[in-house]
Amino acid sequence: MCLAIPMRVLSIDGDTIVAEIDGVKREASLMIIGEEIGVGDYVVVHAGFVISRMDEKEALITLELMKEMKPESATASA
Amino acid sequence: MFVSNGPVERIRVEVEGIVQGVGFRPFIYRLAARYGISGWVRNTPAGVLLEGEGERSHLSAFLRDISAQAPPLAAISSVHSETISVTGEGGFSILPSSGGENSAQISPDCDVCEDCLRELFDPRDRRYLYPFINCTNCGPRYSIITAIPYDRRFTTMERFAMCADCRAEYEDPANRRFHAQPNACPVCGPRIALLDSSGREVMQGGGGRGHDVLLAAVNLLQRGGVLAVKGIGGYHLAVDACNEEAVANLRRRKQRDEKPFAIMAPDLARIDSFARCSETEQRLLGGPERPIVLLPKREATPIASLVAPDNGYFGVMLPSTPLHHLLLRNNFIALVMTSGNQSDEPIAYRDSEAREQLAGIADLFLAHDREIHVRSDDSIIRVFHGSPLFLRRSRGYVPRGIRLPAEQPSVLAVGGELKATVCLTRNDRAFLSQHIGDLKNSATLRSLEECVAHLEKILEIRPALVAHDLHPDYLSTAYAVDLPDLPRVAVQHHHAHMASCMAENSLEGEAIGVIFDGTGYGLDGTVWGGEFLVGGYREFRRQGHMRLVALPGGDAAVREPYRMALSYLFDAGERDFAALQLSCLGDVSAQERHLLQRMLERGINAPLTSSCGRLFDAVSALLDVRSRITYEGQAAIELEALAESAVTDREYPFSVEEFAGRLILDMRPALVELLKDLALGVPRAIMARCFHNSMAAATAGMCERIRCRNGLNRVVLSGGVFQNKLLVEGTLNRLAELDFQVFTHRLVPPGDGGLALGQAVIAGCMRREAERSTELEMLR
Ligand SMILES: [Zn+2]
Ligand SMILES: [Zn+2]
Ligand SMILES: [Zn+2]
After folding, report:
1. B92 lies in which domain range?
2. Interface contact B211, partner A, CB < 8 A
3. Do B96 and B221 fall into the same domain?
4. Is the peptide bond before B399 cis (omega within 30 degrees of 0)?
5. Are the Cβ atoms of A32 and B217 closer than 8 angstroms?
6. Does B331 touch chain A (CB under 8 A)?
7. Which of the residues B41, B460, B575, B650 could staple to B28 if both were Cys, CB 3.0 to 4.6 A apart?
8. Which of B37, B70, B104 is the last residue of a domain?
9. pTM exceeding 0.90
10. What does DSSP say about strands B38-44 and B92-94: parallel, antiparallel, or unpaired?
11. Rounded distance between C-alpha atoms, residue B169 and residue B165, angstroms
């Protein structure tokens, strides 16, 4: 499975969201996800598309795990 | 078990036609079991060969059922049987194929059959929601074959090793998937994926079925996104057909302003909500070939207006792959499904090439890992008088053969320039290729070369000569000229149109050919296109044509119908363009009018033409339907749509003169009358209808005069203008009133897509004649 990072939704404009992880902001498209997404939700972003929503608790655990496994990935530059 | 008590006999049966890759051998096996017949069956180069031994009455029932109950995809052309001596062999077996020269026909690609469709939506089935379900009665064929014989190792399924379950089906003669070459399942077969234009997987098909991928694709479309979908013969670009904004967006990105988009609906019930559909049209739509059928629009429809603006028809199709069924069912009323290409490029079919070509157009790609070996566009059909008329003959019909009136040497015919197809012949069969496109750039020419190579390979035809258009500047002509060591025959464009219509109707001898066309290179160097020919395959005489007018600016006059309106007005005596008050000239500057007037006065850059298509353009402009076009035939198509909205029997006058032994049809009186109506404010639809009536009447009048000269009673109608339903119907009726026998196209398009067939038959006939005369000379 490809690597996908949970991010927190900062804003929504139509089908485009801005999401954030550790201070890095990214734009992503909502075009392929079936469920409604709101500001503050955790979502999985891959290749510029939101591919699923994540439960907050689960997201935080995943982020912790990722920090432990690959310290550099948490401070990803772009 | 069968108890036989009559005398036992043995027969040997040869079956020809499309009988391989269609479940024919298992069908014979089951049939033999039903009648208690022993023997064997095998594929041969010519088709299927079998021997059966049993009681006489059972054998005759067996023989009858071979034709009567053949599998749905089979198309039997002949069954030959003979009695041979009894061997006492027990049981019935399916023997491996025998080698040798292959002349069996490869089956065209086919939509999912009823049985597979049922399994596709059955949660208990192991292929539930699997987008690559197929069996011997359905699935891809022509598009995945890389070589012959038709066998899994010579298809693009080669890389998928069958799992134990699939293998068991494949090897069981009683199974529907016995020797179904593309057989696959979620465990072992191809998978779908959602990719971005760099080829990155946005989402992976978990568990083989790829249901998440499918849902994501549906979501993209429901939100107005543009999805590239890999079909059987190439990529489509899809958007929700009911979403005006999405359709507008696709037009913008594809840079296609007005040409109608084809749409795909999940079932006939949905189609009924936006278009009217006769029984014949329903049969065509639902057939295994899955063509696009032109259907009259309903008054109020949920379909976005930008799908087919200024057009009375929608081009509609039903799903042609399991993936389409999965995408559409319960999700959409219809999807726009337009060929995945940039304008003028051939349809994209290789994955990396598709992503490159469509990168700026599609948001995402719904792709899969079963390769398309041969690209083919969708076929387009229009029904008139209850029978189908091909506007484009492609996927689903290729490489089905067309029977010719006589056997002939093998010919390769390379067609014309627009809507190019090629044709290969063998014995008394012609194989017309899929639609290649407009031969205007190196990409379409390459596509033509690939197509020729592939057809020669799978049909095992080595042409003895090549036929091409008389036009020296067509890319197809240049291609034919460059073929080494092949004798060439140049065929006049309209003679080829005429011959294609005669050949598909199995006509021999001579006939009258009415060829109404856009443009074709004439024998005298002028541009022909409104021709009344007399002759057969070997030769023709130009008995009449439409009056010559100038094409001011050459090709520009084709793109800008108002130029043709001015040319006709000039011809009718109008000399002051500056003062003309016509709405189609509203945005034509004084300077440009002056320039056009000088062009016409001096005959500079204004070649003469007898084109019928240009007359339709001129009238379309005069009625302010269309003064500039963005796709071929647009002015005439919209004029026809306008004419269909009115009913009148009135005709405009015309006259016929004789000049240098030829009959010249002069439509100036019609235009003068039309201008009077225009001044009187007669509804435009009425004028458009009157013009159509007058063309039909003029055609019948010309044929009558030609019959008086030579007694010929058979008329063939061909050429691109005869895609016009109103014109064909009017002409047919008037010719029938005069007791003419009229033949139209049913198997190939009347436009340039059918040209190669005519070229091939003419060249074949010339060759035969030449051989006969050398034989005679040798006897002397
Ligand atoms: Zn099937
Ligand atoms: Zn399998
Ligand atoms: Zn033509």
Report:
1. 8-104
2. no
3. no
4. yes
5. yes
6. no
7. B41
8. B104
9. no
10. parallel
11. 7
